[in-house]
Amino acid sequence: MRRVTSLEADLEFVHPDDRERYRRFWNFLPLNRESQAVIEYRLLPVNGPMLHVREVEVAIPAEDGSYGRAVGFTQDITDRVLAEKALARAHEELERRVAERTAELRKREWQLKQSHEIAQLGYWFWDPVTDVLTVSPELMKILQLPAGEDLLFPYSDFVAKFVHPDDREIVMKLDTLSREKRRFETEYRLVRQDGEARWVREVGEVVFDDAGEPLGETGIVQDVTEQRQDEVRLRQIQKMEAVGQLTGGVAHDFNNLLTVILGNLELGIDATRHGQDADGFLTAALKATVRSADLTKQLLAFSGNQTSAVRVGNVNEVIRGMTSLLHRILGEEFVLETSFWPAECASEFDPAQLESAIINLAINSRDAMAKGGTLRIETTLAEWRGLAGNGESERMVRISVVDSGVGMEPEVRERSFEPFYTTKEDGKGTGLGLSMVYGFARRCGGELEIESEPGRGTTVHILLP
Asked: Is the CB of residue 228 less than 8 Å from the CB of residue 248?
């Protein structure tokens, strides 16, 4: 094999790390008689930067059959090699970032799983196409199912097997509710493997694709059984405290009234023995007796044991029939104003108890307007969102009693419905007035609201369905 230049001379321009490979290429070229030979290496020009080249050679036979010649070409592939190296580096960087991101996602998934376990939060996903419900291991713990990977159920089978019979209708309606509102929250009971019912709070929502089509529903479930039990115990404690307060208040008020009655009766008897007029003492004893009867009525109304004559009636008619009585209760220093809704304000209530509620509010307003003022009673039909519990409004009859009195401080307003809580001096009030009005509204299925600020009067709204 003859070369125009010597192999050793060519090697001077080949990168030192590629010279041995280049020498072997030329030494074995005569043996490669059937096809071309290809080599890629780095070339070091006299002037200029290093080049990456691709050399292709084909051995040519001589007349005697020997292979001592070759023909070929050398191609500059520097740009391609540099591009390939850049692509390789980019690929390595991408793999590194993917590995880091995967590790971060796994860490977050572990943290989320840990937080779910600590908070006892189970999660679920329902695919409406396949009707498959996927539940998490934490939800399986709530159900006392063997711990493991996510478990799959047909949705209807899950409801039939684990949801309390009395709550299944609620759960089955969640699908419709979620499609209307996209997000829902409810509480219901799940039945464990051992038959124990556990209260859970569920928050879920519909998942939509970019086109707005529902992909499924997902949510979290938390066992709130202990929380509900604590709430029941707290209510029992509050009831016991209320009973203690009630007992103490009743004993104190009755003791004061009995003292008045007994004292005046003793003075009356003594006056009669000495031939003196006893009418004043008897009148004072009679007034105290009447106040005792009124206190008994208030207690019965507060406890809900008063005989009730509930019927459908027109609130406007009841209040119109009370105006003369209210004028006498208020006195000449006060102005009574009324405003009635043009249409009938029909509701289901006991007229006597409504009259008693209005009288209690009028007396409170009178006492709050020591130097006289204006009492306004008005009726309207209003939309109210308090009772529906699902964000929907409800049509209510609203009776508003508005005075121009001194108003209430925030701390007084917050305690205004408490039984026996009063800011009046001894002998001027029992503290049952607003409690009785509140009890009346609640027994009718309604609510009582109060608005008041110091120096700006008080407005009490009785809301009846």
From this structure: no
